Fold:
Amino acid sequence: MKSFDVVVIGAGPAGYVAAIRSAQLGFSTAVVDKWIGKDGKPSLGGTCLNVGCIPSKALLESSEQYYQATSHLETHGIRFKQLSFDVPKMIARKDGIVHTLTQGVQYLFKKNKITWLQGEGRLAGNNRITVTTHDRSKDEVEAQHIIIATGSAPRDIPNVETDNEFIFDSAGALNFQEVPEKLVVIGAGVIGLELGSVWRRLGSNVVLLEALDTFLPSVDEQVSQAAMKEFNRQGLDIRLGTRVLSAKAAKKKVTVQYQDANGDHSLECDKIVVAVGRKPCSDRINAEGVGLLLDERGYIHVDEFCKTNLPNVYAVGDIVRGPMLAHKGSEEGVMVAERLAGEETRVNYEAIPWVIYTAPEIAWVGKTERQLKQAARVYKTGVFPLSASGRAQAMGETAGLVKVIADAKTDRILGVHMFAPSASELIMEAVVAMEFAASAEDLQRVVHAHPSISEALHEAALAVDGRPLHI
Ligand code: FAD
Ligand code: NAD
Structure:
């Protein structure tokens, strides 16, 4: 039987990063992964690289280029005689990017001498893992340390069965070969907004049916209100407080039945995307058989260092508590590998950035006002609207705002929220500031390049003390 210092189950961003860091630290390392790519071949990178972060951003980029060309270039004095797009080519470009990056992980495995075991891993007890390969043969490997990183899969809802012909999950919605004339997205969360935006920008009439009465409840209220207004302007029809009862396909159309405060409704469309959250993949690893503790929702129970209740078994990424974000999982992977090597690494869960890749982007780090009120914290806020930013005016991207929240007594930054172009990049200034326990005054004293969107963060920090310069 082959034996390794570390065996990781799952090669998504949590697992493959855990493996690379383990190998860098001198551990003999193997990764078991069962993913089969679109080309029918085993593929590394998990959800994120194959059907998540990367392909969705590739399509967001393509669709945004088209949207800019149709809706903004005229204001710059640029005219086209004819403009068209080719959906299969966009999808092929996206597939090419996925291929490059998943091959890149293969290269990194080779470079770091990581063994790739293709197939499904199952805990067998006594530091052993059974691997069922794609041709159904079985093998057993031994590991001094096991890191479980089996990730998550789309949740479904009763009476709405995904067939990826008319009713799609998020992976299926990345592969449409034509723009649906009418698209219904169930769930106006992160995936719903990102994929809804892709197809809206290409001309689809998109309706988002959201169960909650509140739009994006974990986002700062001022940001979510500004975003709702802007998304409505872009043509996303977001209907809150809806209860989907069923969806059925017939004669190349789908009909969705739903209820809201005004009664029962029936909506006909060409395609439906179900984006109602994700569930942890913990049902096929023999958790019960080996006594691995799960919580009531199926997440593997871990402490702050990602240790499970079993000795030498760790779990990282979407399979454990906390936000389902690639970078959160990767940092957990690094932490576990480094702690195995005797280092004191920890993840600062208070400073994990979130980004929703709409246009403009929504990004935040730290606490919202709602959370601070609930915790009876005394705070002050500073807000700067993008309409007052010279760079935003030059870009023609003036919808949005940046907000800084600081402790009323100590001035320490507690949260930063933005709805702004390139917020995914700009938020990192706030993350670094919070990692270094910066105050709003620290941000005020930093010289920001002019003209740049980052000046809006500078101004929001100044506004915390009531002294913005440009509003
Ligand atoms: P996963 O990426 O899910 O990988 C788990 C791997 O384990 C898979 O390869 C799976 O096949 C394998 N596996 C499972 N069980 C077994 C087993 N028993 N044996 C062997 N292998 C197994 N996050 C962001 O931070 N930014 C984004 O922009 C972003 N966009 C997203 C867009 C979409 C459409 C989706 C669906 C998700 C997006 N996410 C994004 C979330 C992100 O993809 C996940 O948080 C991330 O992939 C989780 O990483 P992971 O390694 O924990 O699990
Ligand atoms: P989500 O939790 O962001 O949104 C799901 C939405 O569906 C919620 O608003 C929820 O209230 C709603 N909902 C649930 N049941 C419903 C029902 N029966 N009818 C109508 N609405 C219903 O989940 P998601 O959008 O599926 O994404 C899953 C996770 O993947 C995210 O939470 C995030 O962690 C990750 N992700 C991250 C990014 C990013 O970082 N940019 C992008 C995509 C996905």
About this structure: The pocket of flavin-adenine dinucleotide (ligand 1) is lined by residues 9-15, 32-35, 46-48, 52-53, 56, 120-121, 149-152, 170, 191, 281, 284-285, 317-319, 324-327, 329, 357 (CB under 6 Å). The mean pLDDT is 98.
